[in-house]
Amino acid sequence: MQNRITGRRERWCPIVSASGSNPQPPRSDADRVVPTSLDALIERDNAQGLIAPDSDCVVSSRVRLARNLIGYPFVHRATPDQLNDLVHRVQSARMSGPFQAGVRWVNVQATAAIDRLLLFERNLISRPFVESPHPRCVAISSDETTSVMVNEEDHLRLQMLAPGLQLQPLASRMFALDASLERSLEFSFHPRFGYLTACPTNVGTGIRVSAMLHLPALIMLDEIDRMKRAAKDMHLAVRGFHGEGTEAIGDFFQVSNQTTLGRSEIDLVEEFTLSIVPQFVAYERTARQTLVERDPASLDDRVFRALGILRSCRLLALEESLKFLSRIRLGVALGRVSDVTLAQVDRLLVEVQPAHLARSMGHELNTAQDEELAKDASPHTGKNRDDRAARATMVRASLNA
């Protein structure tokens, strides 16, 4: 393939050849059956609940690509018929890599609001995708590390997730998937500007690289503004627990690049892996060491008070659970809590959220409650609901096991 604006095809060609050379057989209609229930997602562990490099401070890594197809208007200008045609085009494309082991296609438009929210809580779809009025679907790999949103802000939003700091292996797999799709679909590309996207900040490579950071010590020492200033100086975006459009809760922050034009994918991934994320990790680890040396009793009091509350509480709001889980996670990472693991805490960070809680406890919500839950997935959701008791029961059972 010719060298485009980024030169990626030449530099990553060996990886693409190794990972994407075996095309998939055409999928039958049965392979594209769209489930209305997502019980399988409840029954398996979320991919983020695994231990990986730098997981004491880096909860997860994400690589995302934005792509649009030639011959169709952008999503916000397209007709429902055009968007439905896009869905069928993408479902018929051959996807290699993580999808070779199996793919689950979810018709998001026809899925219950609580299940749309569940996908959002597992970071498989974006917040705007939950409530979008457009015809849309998402492909999810069997291991939940990869999803392809069709008709989000762009025609395609490809994303891959991994626990800890694993941006380089994620990027390798992402470029292989991108290349396999480009053999079946013609992406909108300009010789000068690169891949064309609905939002100008994505024009160029269309790549977003991000890491979810756990920074409780910087919060405790009132040094989080230092981290935010450093991010601003490096032209990075700092967002909340679920990325764009969400607030920082439980001391979790997502750091990502803001622009893609003029930067190669490889350079950006390498900069995040070797410089940007390690710098923030170093800030946090220094702050943690300061807490240990300055006042270990106060540190232990915060950690074990949180652990005691979660092991004994009878009513628990989402905001409280995330705050206390953050403190316990800090204690585990510092070796001060020995009977809880990081993987256990990271699983709970997902399972305490509203849709997961409702689905795992077998709650039956009517349509009005369902839609209300999807529209109000804030940290305060559940303050006046019976799910506070259910959340407390679930957390107690996990931490007392």
Trace the largest sheet across and list its strands.
Answer: 2-3-4-5-1-8-10-9
Assign the CATH superfamily of the largest domain: Glutamine synthetase/guanido kinase, catalytic domain
Instruction: Note the run of SSEs as H and E.
Output: HHHEHEHHEEEHEEEHHEEHHHHHHH
Number of strands: 10
List low-pLDDT spans.
1-36
CATH fold-type name of the largest domain: Creatine Kinase, Chain A, domain 2
Domain module count: 2
Mean pLDDT across all amino acids = 84
Query: Architecture of the largest domain, according to CATH?
Result: 2-Layer Sandwich
What would you call the quaternary organization? single chain
Class based on secondary structure composition and strand pairing: alpha+beta
How far apart the termini lie comes to: 55 Å
Q: Helix share of residues?
A: 40-55%
Biggest beta sheet summary: 8 strands, antiparallel
CATH class of the largest domain: Alpha Beta
Topology (elements, then pairings):
Layout (H helix, E strand, L loop, with lengths): L7 H4 L1 H8 L18 H5 L14 E10 L12 H13 L10 E5 L5 H9 L5 H5 L5 E5 L4 E5 L5 E8 L3 H16 L6 E2 L3 E2 L11 E8 L1 H5 L3 H10 L2 E4 L12 E6 L7 H30 L1 H17 L5 H16 L8 H10 L2 H7 L6 H9 L11 H13 L2
Antiparallel strand pairs: 1-5, 1-8, 2-3, 3-4, 4-5, 6-7, 8-10, 9-10
